[in-house]
């Protein structure tokens, strides 16, 4: 049996209990919430009680989370399958102490690169560059794309675009209408080998040359592979390097964040780093019972591994956080979507949940039906700011807040059959028709949610939020006994795509391919122009 055996037995008892009735205890919110700086995390609308919470908190010690955390921050090679340290936290360790990897302090190099980024960003912002195109994919795209959109009220630099998909539609739609003489292209790729990124980069370079631009001046690169950026012909003064101990999906804090720094300015970018740094400090200092990342992780483990709720909806009530679910999807699913424990044995329980979601209130008019009345329980994670950025539109923001709070209340309370019947009776229905119609209007309720609330989505706060989720994923990974920092699961598809490319181009037969793949190759060949 697994380490969760006792908790699973407990869950059978408490899962069906009314969450609403738990509020009979007067201090429930104080007990089931946490604060970090100005940020408030409320997890009282879950079916957790004190005894369950104690049992969950025991996992923090039994899994050695504090010592693993300290090992990560101090540069120990906790990414054991790649023999690498995990040091995205060092990228925002602005005025912290030295961080040692293989006997050398990595901080001077980090601070020097940050300074070069600042110089470059200031120059681009002062120059006649009108548009910046970041070409990258996965962690080299989602982080800066999400953050640039989230911080659009602070955007005072050139227009910023993101191209990720190898589908020619993406680069074509993006470059159409841009002036090749005033566009800066940033090629963002940790490895500088990713086929999508390199294909898009070559297309952008050809476009720039054909349209009067100068790639030797108007291309920059963000990568750990400086030899490959040189081979591509990028001026070394416009190359910003980083080390392999920064995972792709954790890389927005360093050079991969250059497009964000150009968009919001170095000052905004530093505030973003400071926000993350403040969450790092909270994570390292707060006791488990008050530790926001640890609590978020335990709520996640409770819902996924213990209660068996397979998915998790991320629901930011903030239009500008519309890419947060996509970003967290990579962060969580690429980190914790594993089947093998660090010691090589199979994981005896489910690992990472399916993460999905969309900005509220739009989602309410699309998929919330299933969340409220579907047969599966979907724990929801709401995010909401107390203030918007539109001083003339505070009535919009109040409506947004009301909707956010109403959803978590509705999910918890539900509507009983007798309440629904009363509604139908008020409409004049009687007998079996009243009952039939009432059943369709029944909300089971008792559906768990958490809410993360903060004063305003500014750069500092965004840094806090992203670091909070990073650490949550770390804690979940440690408790699950997996390595959250490799991603071997993406390799096989890449290898097969490489082997299929000549088959699709018609220069090789589909030898050795299964019947389905061979038939699809035939169909494409028949219909391709
Ligand atoms: O294929 C997955 C992945 O390796 C991600 O982990 C990474 O963020 C993305 O591809 C892009 O990789 P790179 O930055 O090396 O181009």
TrEMBL record:
PROSITE patterns xref list: P_GLUCOSE_ISOMERASE_1, P_GLUCOSE_ISOMERASE_2, P_GLUCOSE_ISOMERASE_3
InterPro entries: G6P_Isomerase (IPR001672), G6P_Isomerase_C (IPR023096), Phosphoglucose_isomerase_CS (IPR018189), SIS_dom_sf (IPR046348), SIS_PGI_1 (IPR035476), SIS_PGI_2 (IPR035482)
Pfam family of the protein (one): PGI
UniProt entry keywords in alphabetical sequence: Gluconeogenesis, Glycolysis, Isomerase
Gene Ontology molecular function: carbohydrate derivative binding; glucose-6-phosphate isomerase activity; monosaccharide binding
Catalytic activity as recorded in UniProt: alpha-D-glucose 6-phosphate = beta-D-fructose 6-phosphate
Hydrolase among keywords: no
Pathway membership, UniProt: Carbohydrate degradation; glycolysis; D-glyceraldehyde 3-phosphate and glycerone phosphate from D-glucose: step 2/4
GO biological process: gluconeogenesis; glucose 6-phosphate metabolic process; glycolytic process
E.C. numbers: 5.3.1.9
CDD domains documented for this protein: SIS_PGI_1, SIS_PGI_2
One GO CC annotation: cytosol
Similarity field: Belongs to the GPI family.
HAMAP family (alphabetical): G6P_isomerase (MF_00473)
NCBIfam families documented for this protein: PRK00179.1 (NF001211)
UniProt protein name: glucose-6-phosphate isomerase
């Amino acid at each position: 049996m697994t380490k969760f055996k006792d908790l699973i037995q407990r869950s059978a008892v408490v899962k069906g209990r009314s969450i609403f009735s738990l509020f009979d205890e007067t201090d429930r919110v104080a007990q089931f919430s946490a604060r970090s700086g100005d940020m408030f995390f409320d997890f009282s609308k879950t079916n957790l009680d004190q005894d369950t919470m104690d049992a969950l908190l025991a996992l923090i010690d039994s899994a050695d989370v504090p010592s693993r955390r300290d090992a990560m921050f101090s540069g120990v090679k906790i990414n054991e399958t790649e023999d690498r340290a995990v040091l995205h936290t060092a990228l925002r360790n602005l005025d912290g102490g030295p961080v040692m990897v293989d006997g050398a302090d990595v901080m001077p190099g980090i601070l020097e690169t940050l300074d070069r980024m600042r110089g470059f960003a200031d120059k681009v912002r002062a120059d006649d560059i009108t548009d910046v195109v970041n070409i990258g994919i996965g962690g080299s795209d989602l982080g800066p794309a999400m953050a640039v959109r989230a911080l659009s009220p602070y955007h005072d630099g050139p227009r910023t675009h993101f191209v990720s998909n190898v589908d020619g539609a993406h680069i074509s739609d993006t470059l159409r209408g841009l002036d090749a003489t005033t566009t800066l292209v940033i090629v963002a790729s940790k490895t500088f080998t990713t086929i999508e990124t390199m294909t898009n980069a070559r297309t952008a370079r050809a476009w720039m040359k054909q349209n009067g631009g100068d790639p030797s001046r108007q291309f920059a690169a963000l990568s750990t592979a400086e030899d490959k950026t040189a081979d591509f012909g990028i001026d070394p003064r416009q190359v910003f390097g980083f080390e392999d101990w920064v995972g792709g999906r954790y890389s927005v804090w360093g050079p991969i964040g250059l497009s964000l720094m150009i968009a919001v300015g170095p000052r905004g970018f530093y505030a973003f780093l400071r926000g993350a740094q403040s969450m790092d400090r909270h994570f390292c200092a707060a006791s488990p019972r008050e530790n926001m990342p640890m609590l978020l992780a335990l709520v996640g483990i409770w819902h996924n591994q213990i209660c068996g709720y397979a998915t998790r909806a991320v629901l930011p009530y903030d239009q500008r956080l519309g890419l947060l679910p996509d970003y967290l999807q990579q962060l969580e699913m690429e980190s914790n979507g594993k089947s093998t424990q660090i010691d090589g044995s199979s994981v005896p329980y489910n690992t990472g949940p399916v993460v999905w979601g969309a900005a509220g209130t739009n989602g309410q008019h699309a998929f919330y039906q299933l969340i409220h009345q579907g047969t599966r329980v979907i724990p929801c994670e709401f995010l909401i700011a107390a203030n918007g950025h539109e001083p003339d539109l505070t009535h919009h923001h109040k409506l947004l807040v009301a909707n956010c709070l109403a959803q978590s209340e509705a999910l918890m309370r539900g509507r009983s059959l007798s309440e629904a019947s009363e509604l139908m009776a008020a409409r004049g229905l009687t007998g079996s028709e009243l009952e039939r119609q009432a059943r369709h209007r029944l909300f089971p309720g008792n559906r768990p949610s958490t809410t993360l609330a903060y004063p305003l989505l500014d750069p500092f706060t965004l840094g806090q939020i992203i670091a909070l989720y990073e650490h949550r994923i770390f804690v979940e990974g440690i408790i699950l006994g997996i390595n959250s920092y490799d991603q071997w699961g993406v390799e096989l598809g890449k290898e097969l795509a490489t082997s299929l490319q000549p088959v699709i181009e018609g220069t090789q037969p589909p030898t050795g391919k299964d019947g389905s793949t061979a038939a699809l190759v035939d169909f494409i060949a028949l219909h391709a122009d």
